[in-house]
Amino acid sequence: GTGRMADRGWVCLKHKRWIRGDEQTDLARFGEALVAERHWRGTLAPRRVVVDSPLLLLAEESATVGISKAVMQERAERVKDPSPGLLVYPETVRLARLLSRRSFLDSVLSEAPSRWKRAMVEREVSAILPDSPDAESWRALARIWDMVLNLQDVLRDARWLGHEPSDRWNLLRHSCLAQAEHLGVQRVDEVV
User: Fold this and answer.
1) What is the DSSP letter of 155?
2) Nearest by Cα to 42 from 112, 120, 96
3) What are φ and ψ of residue 18, in 5° steps?
4) Which residues contact 154 (CB under 8 A, 6 or more apart)?
5) What are phi and psi of 10, to 5 degrees?
6) Coil/strand/helix, residue 26
7) 3-class SS at 147?
8) 160 contacts: CB under 8 Å, gap ≥ 6
9) Which helix (H) or strand (E) segment is 12 a member of?
10) Is the pTM of this model over 0.85?
11) Is the confidence at residue 189, as pLDDT, over 60?
């Protein structure tokens, strides 16, 4: 074990330190990370999202490829010895909150046309990672859209085969549409 607490992200709010990795980084001049940690504890911890989950890795990867280089540079100047994960932590938390939000999941897993779903995902992602000349937010959108397509495939296959969906992202538990009773699958406790 790593000694990590499941209801915490990568920030110690009491000491205002980034606690990922071997070194602790002072966040006194990077208030956005402290706000992101409060959002983590208020939203993601109750949803049982942990720091090393596939969802968080996807959110961090998407934030890293989609954020403006000017924003990264400005943040790096405010923090001594910054890590890439620290510099995109606010966007990582916002993306993770979006991807685990019940209304978002129900919308992208609904029977609505794909064009509508794609436009909604694009709108939501661009609100977190605005497009700018030095950013490649389309890369972040592509990663998130691939995850959405994967979830749709998993849900469709579970319906066709009549079994519980296997969810590598651990997100379907947040969606009303993905619940077993909506799939027509008997729950295990009903069978016994």
Assistant:
1) H
2) 96
3) -85, 120
4) 165, 166, 167, 172
5) -100, 15
6) strand
7) helix
8) none
9) strand 11-12
10) yes
11) no
Amino acid identity for residue 83 in this structure: S
Residues 179 and 141: their CA atoms lie apart, in Å, by: 26
Distance (Å, rounded) from C-alpha 134 to C-alpha 37? 27
| Average pLDDT in the chain | 89
Across residues 96-107, what is the average pLDDT? 96
Section 27-38 average pLDDT: 96
What is the reported pLDDT for 4? 62
Relative orientation angle of helices 54-66 and 89-99, to the nearest 10 degrees: 130
Return the DSSP state at 104. H
Query: Is the CB of residue 41 less than 8 Å from the CB of residue 9?
Result: yes
95, 126 Cβ separation under 8 angstroms = no
Q: How confident is the model at residue 187 (pLDDT cuts 50, 70, 90)?
A: very low
The CA-based angle 51-56-60, given to 5 degrees, is 115
Taking the C-alpha atoms of residue 78 and residue 4, their distance in angstroms, rounded to an integer, is 27
Question: Is the pLDDT assigned to residue 186 strictly greater than 70?
Answer: no
